[in-house]
Request: fold
Amino acid sequence: MEVKQLHIYKCLWIFICSLGLASCVEEFDFVSENFEDILIIDATITDEMKHHEVFLSRTFRFEDKPDAPESGAVVTLLSENTTIVFSEIEPGHYASVDKFRAQPNTAYQLQINTAFGRSYRSENVQLTPEVAIDALYAEREVNSTLGDGISLFIDSYDATGDAKYFRYGFEETYKIIAPFWRSEKVKVIANDFPKCEVALEKRPDSVRVCYKTQPSDVISVASTATTSENRIRRHRVHFLSNQNAKISHRYSMLAIQYVQTQQANNYYKTLLEFNQNESLFSQVQGGYIQGNYTSETNKNEKVIGFFEVASVAKKRIFFNYEDFYDGEPLPPYFVDCYKSAPQLFGPIGSMRCGPLPRLVEMEAISYLKDNDGEFKLGGPYIMLPRTCGNCTTIGDVSPPEFWIE
Reply:
């Protein structure tokens, strides 16, 4: 899923289920009363040729684990001439059996029949007009609200005036360089007292440079409905603090622009208001946002989600840390690279090996250097958390196909 809408839907329903608990300042156990079991539907069909996806889940109680996929459903997309079938590829995650793209001047309706005999349908929705992204650019900004960091902006323009509402998401990829990578690693020879033995060996491959790609869980919306010109100018898609380790070396963003209907745009604006921390318990008290799904089984049943058929435009940008912070210190690494020297043998009389062999076998630590007295009571090697010397705990050593240096 390119944009994690489901994350916001779940945050919304945590809020809804806990509204009644917010009026007391004394300590109490969070137990959701008057809980409603509601289907959450995350589905956006686009004009891209691909296997499109639908995500189904259920609301969950505030005190429960936030993982309630809706499995066993029959998901179909109906149009005037075609029925497109979706298959469940993992719990709650459905993908179209065949690749397809949404076509203009065609009405689409999503139909869902659950394993428990409930039936849901969306309104009929048509593909929105195409609008290209004119520019995607990064600028260093320093202000009292965001601090010091990199803002990524989008410009776009629709000369026809047919498209006035937009939603933005992104996918980010960043280069990771393990700051304390070494060409040697510790191997365990024996971990059975009284034979407790470790040694250094050369690494068979490099785990110093990796790449991580992840979709955003951030959504932003924009509109030109109240402007004299149908143009998006300097819409901030994302902000990265100068303390964010993702920009330490090389960073890439794939910006994604969805053209929306006014109804869809209003839905997302309202949804985002619910997800703002400052307004959760003060400005919003309604508890439910009506989307464009209805229950065929029970007309009064609530359904969370908004079905969209949207044209999509994408644009990618790359930048290096030194492009904006030349000569300045790198941001803090992803983890605290604290040093330790785990002992090889356990305490005298314990009749067991120390923690070093076990931590090496668990791949929890990385070799930094020999312990030449820095840790007087420590083991033979100074070690760091594994992530500090092995980037594969975060990313993949193979760069993605689109990556360029």
Confidence is low (pLDDT under 50) at residues 13-32, 277-286. The two ends are 27 Å apart (CA to CA).
